[in-house]
Design brief:
By secondary structure, this protein is an all-beta fold. It has no helices and 13 strands. The protein has a nine-stranded antiparallel beta sheet, with no helix packed on it.
């Protein structure tokens, strides 16, 4: 659902993964590796330092449920700049969703006529630290491509970061 309630303002609402699931079939295997290191002493250098077991076994077909997630967003255009606010929240706790809301802010400025510069900030919640993101791209009437990176728990990626994400995107517009 999207709407333009007033000039320059767009709002949207989505519920993702409403009956979402992944069916795993066709020669499924589970691979387990267990490693254990012993104490290391100078006298033990000629002995094996790590014990390792490696097991693979076949599993049957199974399904992974993807919990639904709620997202509400807004985008305000102001000349060559745009500003966004997003709220994302899962309906239940899972590996990929959380009931803790995630609030993010973003801004984009079009340099010249075709180069979007982007910056974003996600507020921390009980499950995740704050994140900063930066992007740069090329956009025309028929084509768009760009790259972005995100740093977790640091304004820029550095030794204090607790994670780093890099992404590329492209699309053809018609």
């Amino acid at each position: 659902f999207t709407s333009t309630p007033m000039k320059n303002l767009e709002v949207g609402l989505t519920i993702d993964n409403i009956a979402g699931k992944i069916n795993w079939s066709n020669k499924n295997k589970n691979h387990e590796i267990h490693m254990e290191a012993d104490s290391i002493y100078i006298a033990d250098l000629n002995e094996d330092l790590v014990d390792q077991t490696d097991t693979t076994y076949t599993t049957g077909d199974y399904t992974t449920e993807m919990p639904a997630e709620f997202n509400i967003s807004s985008l305000y255009h102001l000349g060559k700049a745009s500003f966004s606010l997003d709220w994302k929240q899962g309906f239940k706790e899972s590996v990929v969703t959380t009931k803790q809301p995630r609030i993010s802010l973003g801004a984009e400025y079009i340099l010249g006529k075709i180069i979007p510069l982007q910056i974003g900030y996600s507020l921390p919640n009980a499950n995740e630290s704050y994140k900063f993101s930066y992007g740069l791209g090329v956009r025309s009437n028929h084509f768009e491509m760009g790259m972005a990176f995100q740093s977790s728990h640091a304004v820029i990626p550095c030794l204090l970061s607790r994670g780093f994400t890099f992404s590329l995107h492209s699309r053809i517009l018609y």
